[in-house]
Amino acid sequence: MHDEQTVAEMMKSAGVKYWSLTDHDTTNGWSKAAKHCSKIGINFIPGIEITCKPDIAPQEDFKQKLGLQNAKTSWHLLAYFPIECLADGSMIEIEKWLAPFKENRVERMKSMLEKLKEFGHDISLDEVRSYATDTIGRPHLAKAMVAARIVETADEAFETWIGDGKPAHVENEQPTISDAVSMVKQYGGITSLAHPKNYAVPTEMLLISLKKSGVDAVEAFHSSHSDVYRNELLCAARLQGLSVTTGSDFHGTEHNSRSGKSLVPLSDLHPFFQAFIP
Question: What is the pLDDT of residue 259?
């Protein structure tokens, strides 16, 4: 994985003016990222991608309509916080709230390694940790699998072994969407459901559920979305009084992420983000 300085410089080169570091279930990296952004003239927004229990199960007919082979078994909730969180003690409290779920990630990883071992692939927890700076997750395991020559690419690791529903996949203990929303609001943040296509839930049903749970927005503008689906999400969000967000979903250069290339109507951004617009 890339360090905070490297990613900040990548964002600068891509023409990004406002960057949020939203790593999975951790605030780690906020302080370093903010420092580097300040040096190179980028506005930093503290963020997290919180792994949550799904409010609605995937719908088979909609999954087929979207052309998905598999739907994710967890929902990912993007949380964006005021920059003041870095100095007023909020970051420490947020990390305390996340701590039990981070510990569960370690136990989950141990179980996944045991499953891989049953198939003749022996990887240690330390090998996986060597690719992580804080929160341990499947992307780090995928890198370890590539290094061990079990697979040729990280994508192959997910598609064959560790993706949702695959032989070595193990579910993780997760908060509900409502619980995560409550925590984020407590510290002045807002929330947006990341890459909604991955959950295979019909658009109207999904947006009504998000509204009910107190979610502020939906990531309608994502690289995996077709123009038709993107517009469908945008129209549904407007009907429900929700905002929309966009993001690169950057997981490293090997995943072909394109930062700063997605257009979004400024009027549909949440006031939290509109406040940054000159």
Answer: 63
Instruction: Quote the pLDDT of residue 253.
Output: 56
- pLDDT for the residue 189: 97
Integer Cα distance of 249 and 223 in angstroms: 8
Q: Are 12 and 40 in contact (CB under 8 A)?
A: yes
- Amino acid at residue number 191: T
Question: HEC states along 86-132?
Answer: HCCCHHHHHHHHHHHHHHHHHHHHHHHHHHHHHCCCCCCHHHHHCCC
Q: What type of residue is 90?
A: S
Question: Taking the model in full, what pTM does it have?
Answer: 0.81
Report yes or no: 173 and 74 within 8 Å, Cβ to Cβ.
Answer: no
Low-confidence ranges of the chain (pLDDT < 50): 255
Determine the length of the chain. Answer: 278
Cα separation of 75 and 142, whole Å? 20
Element spanning 237, H or E: helix 227-240
Which residues are CB-neighbours of 204 under 8 A, at least 6 positions away? 236
Positive or negative torsion for Cα 229, 23, 2, 171? negative
pLDDT of residue 103: 81
Domains of the chain are 4-274 (3.20.20.140)
251-259 long-range contacts, CB within 8 A, separation 24+: 251/139, 252/1, 252/2, 252/139, 253/2, 254/153, 254/154, 255/154, 255/155, 257/223, 258/14, 258/223, 259/10, 259/11, 259/14, 259/16
* Sign, Cα dihedral of 27, 32, 35, 41: negative
Q: Which residue has the tokens 């993107």?
A: 230
